[in-house]
Design brief:
The chain contains six helices and five strands, in the order βαβαβαβαβαα. By secondary structure, it is of the alpha/beta class. Helix 4 links the parallel strand 4 and strand 5. The N and C termini lie far apart (about 45 Å).
């Protein structure tokens, strides 16, 4: 049985992930971690520090904030654990931490975990390369709870479009 830890378990996505892990007979919710107070604070699965959170699980899932992901990556350097990270809006420093950590542990990172969006990224790159005479515009709409704008998905689509035209998006 795979022991799963949910980093940011008191958030909207974190709560959903806890439910999904609990519904999967091949998984065990082994640890939870979050900042602040929550109805989950009294849970026997709650860990008060990131190190003990990581020690209790085989894989940790993180959909928090760039600062939260940075804290997780720094702790995982001392206790390598497989990580699934869907946090967006990472700074260059945080992206470098992610890249460095991937040398010593398994990490799945995506700005959007949807298979459809992965296909869309590929299609955008191809269309961008083939339709060079066309302008590209990305318009996004989100629910009212969305915390980052532009979203990680929109930024990844822009990267795919730039890659299709062999352009440096930052430039």
């Amino acid at each position: 049985m795979l022991k799963v830890g949910i980093y940011g378990a008191s958030g909207r996505v974190g709560k959903l992930l806890c439910e999904l892990v609990n519904e999967n007979p091949a998984m065990e919710l082994a640890s939870i971690y979050f900042k602040g107070e929550s109805e989950l604070t009294g849970s026997p699965l709650f860990k008060s520090d990131v190190a003990s959170f990581l020690e209790a699980c085989d894989v940790a899932i993180d959909f928090t904030s760039p600062e939260g992901t940075e804290e997780l990556l720094e702790a995982a350097e001392k206790n390598p654990t497989a990580l699934v990270i869907g946090t967006t809006g990472l700074s260059a420093h945080q992206q470098n931490l992610l890249k460095d950590a991937s040398a010593s542990m398994a990490i799945l990172y995506a700005t959007n975990m949807s298979l459809g969006v992965a296909l869309l990224n590929s299609l955008v790159e191809t269309a961008s390369a083939k339709l060079r005479e066309f302008d590209i515009e990305i318009v996004e709409m989100h629910h009212r709870h969305k915390k980052d704008a532009p979203s990680g998905t929109a930024l990844t689509l822009a990267e795919s479009a730039a890659r299709g035209r062999e352009l440096d998006l930052d430039a």
